[in-house]
């Protein structure tokens, strides 16, 4: 009886917990608090935080399959098989399909200047790339880290897998998704610092109506043009545009609803928990992870600043017709970044409505980040 009780007690996780595990469990609880109490991107943070919680209590939940000395095959942990779908770029691509099915590209079509603002907000990616090399990362690792600057979790995971940086995928993905969730905290101070109150009060003209034909042709043309120039972007840009074509064609309502609802949420659960499960204390609590988190913040700040500063330039060139605040939405956090542009503009003038104008750069940022990932892949000869 005593042996049985002793074995039972030693099977508990209390005897295997380290100080590192306790720290990561605390971090998971903070993420859950931010998601549930503060409402910071709960669809992302809840599964990520819970995956983080699970792996630091029971590390085998993401263990790889193995063959023991007797030649007996043992299955891997549950979340290992979810994570394989990340490594194979399946889940990030499906996320893009869902985003496409949920997103109205009308503001971008109505105001093509949004493409330039979306491109300007990618400044953070390239700034972080060179800074990461300076801090000792190899070129491929630096590229995988730099893409955090686009505030695009799926693209970060996609590029890390394609460039063979799976050992960094966990910290990169957690940093990217964390900064996506913290957009309402990180962006406003930068936006206010770089703009005057007069600029923040600028009211933009109502966008022109966009025809159904334009909305149908847009995803087809973008797919052809972008994928001909950078074929490596096809998994992301192609799925994004396919989802949008479902939405705008009007003839596949069931596919639109599935891609934007059931499939999207299933994929978020699988991706979020598996990404969170990569953050075991032994893998996460090290100097490289700290540098990745710092670089991600720098990249995101530079991306926000790049969008706002280019917005100021367009404001000057158009003699005050463009509110520079919409430039900050050029990062890929859809639609959170656009909402932040609206919020900061409304603080300056409650009658100012920038949301639809900001959605243009926001959607352009999604495409821009995917293109940046494709450029890195082409640079390193990855197909």
Question: Any idea what the radius of gyration is?
Answer: 22 Å
In DSSP terms (H or I, runs of 4 or more residues), the helix count works out at 20
Q: Any low-confidence stretches, pLDDT <50, length ≥5?
A: none
Terminus-to-terminus distance: 60 Å
- Can you summarize the main beta sheet? 2 strands, antiparallel
For the biggest β-sheet, the strand order reads 1-2
Which structural category do the helix and sheet elements fall into? Answer: mainly alpha
Q: In percent terms, what proportion of residues is strand?
A: under 5%
Average pLDDT, all residues: 90
Query: What is the count of β-strands?
Result: 2
- Global morphology: globular
Q: What string, H for helix and E for strand, traces the elements in order?
A: HHHEEHHHHHHHHHHHHHHHHH
Helix content: over 70%
Topology:
Elements: H1 2-10, H2 19-36, H3 42-57, E1 66-67, E2 73-74, H4 78-87, H5 90-102, H6 106-110, H7 113-120, H8 123-134, H9 139-146, H10 153-162, H11 166-181, H12 183-194, H13 197-200, H14 212-229, H15 234-249, H16 253-276, H17 281-284, H18 287-317, H19 336-348, H20 355-379
Antiparallel strand pairs: 1-2
Keywords:
20 helices; two-stranded antiparallel ribbon; 2 strands
Model description:
- The structure is a single chain.
- With 383 residues, the protein is an all-alpha fold.
- Helices cover 71% and strands 1% of the residues.
- The protein has 20 helices and two strands.
- The chain has helices at residues 2-10, 19-36, 42-57, 78-87, 90-102, 106-110, 113-120, 123-134, 139-146, 153-162, 166-181, 183-194, 197-200, 212-229, 234-249, 253-276, 281-284, 287-317, 336-348, 355-379; strands at residues 66-67, 73-74.
- Helix 3 (42-57) crosses helix 11, helix 7 crosses helix 20 and helix 11 crosses helix 18 (287-317).
- The model has no long low-confidence stretch (mean pLDDT 90).
